[in-house]
Structures are given as C-alpha cells and as structure tokens.
Write a structure and sequence with these properties.
Keywords: Carboxypeptidase, Disulfide bond, Hydrolase, Metal-binding, Metalloprotease, Protease, Signal, Zinc. InterPro entries: CARBOXYPEPT_ZN_1, M14A-like_propep, M14A_act_pep, Peptidase_M14. The chain is α/β, with parallel strands linked by helices. It folds into two domains: 26-103, Alpha-Beta Plaits; 124-414, Aminopeptidase. 37% of the residues lie in helices and 18% in strands. An eight-stranded mixed β-sheet has the order 5-6-8-7-11-14-12-13, with helices on both faces. The chain has a four-stranded antiparallel β-sheet with strand order 2-3-1-4.
C-alpha cells in the first residue's frame, strides 16, 4: 500500500503557469420563455461561445427553465444589450466572479459547532493521504485499491467501506466526475468518515456496514480536479489533449447513446463527449470495475453540483424506465429525509424531464448494465453560489445528503437478490 500512496502523487507536473483569474467576469441567469428565445440563446452561444454552467450546453436550454452562463467582463455589456433587445429576462448572479471564488474559502464558524471543527475543501494530495490513512486505521471496515490510472498517470483509488465479508450487496458512490464540483468529493470524504466514526454506535449505520459494501470513489476525475485547484477553479473536464483544446466531459463519455443529441465535434466545448464511447481511460477504468462486480452492485449514486436535484434515468430517452414507480417512490422518500433536517428543497425526476436529453451519462450507462437503482444528486446550492459553495455550507450539505443516501441504502438492503 505504501507504493500506491507514493504513486498517488505522481502525475504530469504543472509548469510555472499563471492561474486563470475571473476579475469582473459575470454569471448570468436567463429565463427564456419561448422556443424563439431559446433559439436566440443557441445562436448567441454559437457566435460568442458562452460558458454554460447549468445546463452544461445551450443544447439543453428549454423554455421556462433557468440557465446560467459565465462571460468575460468585456462581453457582458454586449450580451446584456442583446438580451434586453430580445426581451429575455435575466439576472446577474455574480458581478465579479473572481471575488465569488475567493469568498468560497471565507468560513464563518457556526455558533453551535461543539466540536470546533471547520470543514474545508481538500486538494487532491490531502484527499489521497486521507484515503490511505483511513484504510490503514480501520482495516476491518475500509480497504483501498487502485482501479486504473488517469490520463496523467495518477492512480484512481476506490475505498471499499463495510465489514469485509463475501456475498454482500454493493453500492457505488461516485464523486468528482466534474472537476469544479468540489462539494462532491467533500461528500464522499464525509460519508467515509461518518461510516467509520459511527460504526458500532449508530444502529442503522452499523447494520448497513455489516450487510452492504460501499464502493467509494472519492475523486473520479483526478487530473481535472488538480487543475481546478492549481490553474482554473472552474475547470470541468479531464486533461487529455484533443487537438487545439484539452479535455473530455467524462459524464458524456459512457457507452450509452454516445453523442446522440449534442452532436458536438468541438473539443473546446464544456460537454465535449470525446472521440468515441469510453475513449477516456478514466471512463474505461470505472466501466471495467462495474462490469467485474455487477453480480453484487445493486445501486449507483453519482454526486454533482449544483441545483438541488435528485435525478434518475433516463437521460438519453424520454420514456420512463421499467421500474419507474419504485424508483420514483424511493426518490421521494430520500428527499423527505433530506429536507427534514434543514428544510432544503430539492426537485426530482428523470434526467430527460428535469434538465433535458443527455447522452453518455454514468447513471444511464450503469442502469442499462443492470444496476436498477442509479441516481444522480445535484447538491447545493440552487440560487447564489453555483459551483462555489462556501466552506461554511459543507457540513449541512453533507449531513442532509447522508440521510438521503441512507434511505437508498436501506432500500437496497431489503432487496431479495
């Protein structure tokens, strides 16, 4: 294991580069009301290459659904004039994106935080050290393994959490497939820490860990995550070069209706799906691991941000999945538990109905492979912070999400096979 720990820090070195800054850049939220307004947004994107936050591309913009995008300070004045001229409603969520990025690290300590701990986002090197340490300190509950390597050569690590026995049901927790969504890896760390801390004390967690193995990937897209810490806070894709631009959206790269809707051959786009299904080594590693463990894995939960949504398949088709009624009831129960803690409101439903048609996603792929309880969480927030959720909100976000995950896990526990 010591050799693996050393390898965790080996990867393509980052030269002396100046990190990208977003001084005076703006984040817009638009609300197109008609198909005509949607078509204009797509036209504007084609001409000015808008950096969409939510949804990931203009392809998914639909009437009466808000969409967020980022523009440079110079372009924002032009875009405002265009939107005003067309009568498209908009708000500016961030007047200076660089200041919003920097505020993410300003923690206001909670008045009732008895432990005195402040929860912070962690760079990859600290996550790797933590993973090694938690496995070393809890050998009866946690084991660490490598399931593949990233494009830049970093080992993709997976933690198996639960009593180490054979013939147990499994649940995949997949975090950090999009580099800039930092609350996602933070939740996977939270889950593992809470599992080992409360085993033997919390009856429900003890029962789960005795009978279920959680396969936890703390950071799926490690190269991109490192880049988001060192060079570009809002980087989304992996770091494999594709001609003039770098990166593939790993959550569009799975072998399920690959590139069916976007038809986007431009590798510079945020949602670029790659050169083919499973063209990326990270996707290949995850897919191979799932296929090898299909007999035991009963659920797959992918964690993203932002928007406060609980999604399930299909994304690549508009029809309901065969077990739609069961999955829908489970989603409702999970969100009842989540909202019961702090009153946080989520919406839920299939990907295609909530955010539009999407091809190549991890949960669509795993569902078609036979994992019939595949979900995607879009964690906090829904209104202000987008990908830049302040560190002061890590704890409540993870606490409420843990309750929802336990509901899904308890359902898995009841399955006959």
């Amino acid at each position: 294991m010591m050799f693996l720990l050393l390898c965790l820090f080996i990867g393509a070195s980052v030269g002396v580069l100046t990190p990208r800054r977003y001084d005076n850049d703006k984040v817009f939220r638009i609300l197109p009301k008609t198909e005509k307004e949607v078509e204009f947004i797509k036209y504007l994107d084609n001409k000015m290459q808008l950096d969409f936050f939510k949804p990931a591309s203009s392809h998914q913009v639909i009437p009466n659904n808000p969409a967020d995008f980022h523009t440079s300070a110079e372009e924002s004045e032009i875009i405002m004039k265009f939107l005003e001229k067309k009568g498209i409603k908009f708000d500016i969520l961030s007047e200076n994106l660089q200041e919003t990025i920097e505020r993410q690290f300003q923690v206001v300590e909670e008045k009732n935080n008895r432990s005195g701990r402040i929860f912070r986002y962690q760079p990859w090197e600290k996550i790797a050290t933590w993973a090694f340490s938690v496995a070393l300190r809890n050998p009866k509950l946690v084991s660490m393994m490598e399931i593949g390597k990233t494009y830049e050569g970093r080992p993709i690590i997976l933690l198996k959490v639960g009593k180490q026995k054979a013939c147990k049901k499994g649940i995949i927790l997949e975090c950090g497939i999009h580099a800039r969504e930092w609350i996602s890896p933070a939740f996977c760390q939270w889950f593992v820490n809470e599992a080992v801390k409360t085993y033997g004390k919390d009856k429900n967690m003890t029962r789960l860990l005795d009978r279920v193995t959680f396969h936890v990937i703390p950071v799926f897209n490690i190269d991109g995550y490192v880049w988001s810490w060192t060079q570009d806070r809002l980087w989304r894709k992996n770091r494999k070069p594709n001609g003039e631009c770098i990166g593939t959206d790993l959550n569009r790269n799975f072998n399920i209706s690959w590139n069916k809707f976007e038809k986007d051959e431009d590798p510079c786009m945020q949602a670029y799906a790659g050169t083919g299904p499973e063209s990326e080594v990270e996707t290949q590693a995850f897919s191979t691991y799932i296929r090898k463990n299909l007999d035991s894995i009963k659920a797959h939960i992918s964690f993203h941000s932002y928007g406060q949504m609980l999604l399930y398949p299909y994304g690549h088709a508009e029809e309901n999945i065969p077990n739609h009624e069961i999955v829908e009831k489970l989603a409702v129960s999970a969100l009842e538990a989540l909202s019961g803690l702090f009153g946080t409101k989520y919406i839920h439903g299939s990907i295609s109905k909530i955010i539009g048609l999407v091809s190549g996603s991890s949960i669509d792929w795993s569902y078609e492979e036979g994992i019939k309880y595949s979900f995607g969480f879009e964690l906090r927030d829904g209104k202000i912070y987008n990908f830049l959720l302040p560190e002061s909100l890590i704890k409540p976000t993870c606490q409420e999400t843990m309750l929802a995950v336990k509901v899904i896990a308890n359902h898995v526990l009841k399955l006959e096979t």
